[in-house]
Amino acid sequence: MAWIFLFLAGILEIGWAIGLKYTEGFTRLVPTVLTGAAMLASIVLLGVAVRTLPLGTAYAIWTGIGTVGTVILGIILFAEPATAVRIGCIALIIAGIAGLKLTA
């Protein structure tokens, strides 16, 4: 169950990271509230997950999910560059996440 909570926390991290773009510097009320709620929920779920998972592993996986998802959505939503180097770096992060999961 802790892995599910950690995965959901990572998904919410993607949500709040992308949400930051839509807040326009926290000047738009609805995106700001939604981003804040996603931040809070993400941290709470991470906290629940680390009750049984190793902290270092959980934190690295949480940030890895957030990083990979945010970069991919940045490419899709905001026309950020999708260079071979960026894709390669995403692959390395995914490999690191998988390695940590397998050794936990």
From TrEMBL:
Subcellular location: Cell membrane
Residue ranges of the TM segments: 29-50, 57-78, 84-103
Family annotation (Pfam families): Multi_Drug_Res
Membrane topology: Multi-pass membrane protein
Entry annotated with the keyword Endoplasmic reticulum: no
NCBIfam families given in the database record: PRK11431.1
Protein's UniProt name: Guanidinium exporter
Taxonomic source organism: Rhizobium herbae
